[in-house]
Amino acid sequence: MIETxxxxxIMIPDFKxxxxxTRVAEALKIMxxxxxxxxxxxxxxxxxxxxxxxxxxxxxxxxxxxxKLHETHVYEIMSKPVLSVPASMPVPYAARLLTNxxxxxxxxxxxxxxxxxxxxxxxxxxxxxx
Length: 130
Description:
Helix content is 33%, strand content 20%. By secondary structure, the chain is α/β, with parallel strands linked by helices.
């Protein structure tokens, strides 16, 4: 029987969370410095949920619309809510979930805490070819 990898085995554990009032210019600087393609946006209070900012969001909602990076706040362009998957989910199911919702990233949850992120790129890059 083929052993299926779990989300916890291929997730990105070194994710970064920022505040929604952060300017896009600062968020992009963080992304470039830490070689990240996405950032989680912290909920503003207990009744709020996480958001996500991706390079695609910046390209489509700032650059393509000729908005200024240093004048636009992350909360204006982020996607929300963020899809989440359990760390114990088999990778093929996570891939199906992300593609069904047409998203590239999801938060990884374990014991009610965000412990990482998973991406379609990461799923493909870590898929066993044998």
